[in-house]
Write a structure and sequence with these properties.
This protein is mostly helical and about 80 residues long. The chain is built from five helices and two strands. It has helices at about 5-15, 20-25, 30-35, 45-50, 65; strands spanning about 1-5, 70. The longest helix is centred in the N-terminal third of the chain and has 9 residues, at about 5-15. It is globular, with a radius of gyration of 12 Å. The relative contact order is 0.25. The model has no long low-confidence stretch (mean pLDDT about 75).
Length: about 80
């Protein structure tokens, strides 16, 4: 599964809301909501948009900091 916990932590650290992320990246709120589901991996294709979003590079939004792979129970 894909975890976006790094993204949510960076939002908190930068005093940003998910709506701010939508405004700065052009991603829809439904896309961001889907990314909140831990097993939803299609959001990975949006990570480059997040990393290159307006003012987000300066806030430390780097690919490796946003996404993490978490093995499923059967993979452990």
């Amino acid at each position: 599964a894909i975890s976006y916990n790094g993204l949510w932590k960076l939002l908190i650290d930068n005093n940003m809301k998910k709506g701010d992320l939508c405004a700065k990246t052009g991603l829809s709120s439904s896309t961001i909501a889907k990314m909140q589901t831990a097993s939803h991996s299609s959001g990975v294709k949006n990570v480059p948009d997040i990393c290159s979003g307006k003012n987000l590079q300066r806030a430390g939004f780097n690919f490796g900091d946003l996404v993490d792979y978490v093995p499923d129970e059967e993979e452990k």
